[in-house]
Amino acid sequence: MDDNKDAVLEGVVFVGETLGPLFLNDPKTGDAGAAFQALAELDVDAAAAEWPFVDDEEAARDLGLMKEGLAKGAEDDDLVWEYRRLFIGPAPKPAPPWGSVYTDRECVVFGQTTLELRAWMREQGIERLVDDKTPEDHIGLMLVLMAWIAGNRPEALDEYLSLHLLTWSSHFLDQLAGAADQPFYEGLARLAQASLEGIQAQLALDVTYPRFYR
C-alpha cells in the first residue's frame, strides 16, 4: 500500500474515532468527557488546518461552532438537553440518527437497511464494537465502525462506505444541522457531513442513493 493510501486510511480512522463518540455519548453522563474537554479548549485555526478531507475554511467554521457550543462546558444544561432532544427523546426526534428511518418505506428503526448492514457485517466476520442495544445503522456506531475497518480491514472500506454509510449520511446530517438549536451539534453535523463527502471524493467512490422517505 502506498504512502498516500496509508495517509488516507489514517485520516479515515481519525474522523471516525473523533466524531463517532460525540454522536453516541451524552455530554454529561457519557464516556467521551475527555473529547468534549479537548474541543472546549481547541485552537480552532490550528485544528482546522490539520483536519483531513475538508478545506481549512469550512473546517474552521464547523469546529468554531462546536467550540462555541462548549463555551459553558460539557455539563451545561443547554448542551445536555439538546443532545437528549436530538438523540434520546422521549419526544419524537427531529432527525433520528438511524439510516433505516430515512431509507425504509415505513420510516422504522431496525428496517431493511439495518438488516442489510447486519448481514454484511456477518459475512465479513465483523462484530459490533460498542453498544449491543442500538441498531447497527446509528450514525455514531457507523463512524466508529468506519474507523475500525480503515485500521483493521481496509480492503472492506470502500464497500462499507458505498453500500452502507454514504448512501444516507449526507441526507441525515443535513437534516440534523438544520434541526440543531445548539451550535455544538450544528457544527458536529456539518463537520461530519463535509468529512464523509471528502472521504467519498478522495476514494472516488460511486454511490447509488436510495429513495428517502423522510
Weakly predicted, low-confidence segments: none
Total of domains: 1
Number of helices: 11
CATH domain topology: TorD-like
Q: What would you call the structural class?
A: mainly alpha
Output the CATH class name: Mainly Alpha
Question: Which sequence of SSEs, written as H and E, runs from N to C?
Answer: HHHHHHHHHHH
Q: What characteristic shape results from the CA principal axes? A: globular
Q: CATH homologous superfamily?
A: TorD-like
Percent in helix = 55-70%
Largest sheet: none
Oligomer: single chain
Organism: Gordonibacter massiliensis
InterPro entries: DmsD-type (IPR026269), DMSO/NO3_reduct_chaperone (IPR020945), TorD-like_sf (IPR036411), TorD/DmsD_chaperones (IPR050289)
Pfam families: Nitrate_red_del (PF02613)
Keywords: Chaperone
Structure overview:
This protein is an all-alpha fold and 214 residues long. It has a single domain (3-203), classed as TorD-like (Orthogonal Bundle), CATH 1.10.3480.10. The chain is built from 11 helices and no strands. Helix 8 runs antiparallel to helix 9. It is globular and about 45 Å long. The protein starts with a helix and ends in an 11-residue tail after the last helix. The model has no long low-confidence stretch (mean pLDDT 96). This is Tat proofreading chaperone DmsD. Keywords: Chaperone. It holds the Pfam family Nitrate_red_del. It comes from Gordonibacter massiliensis.
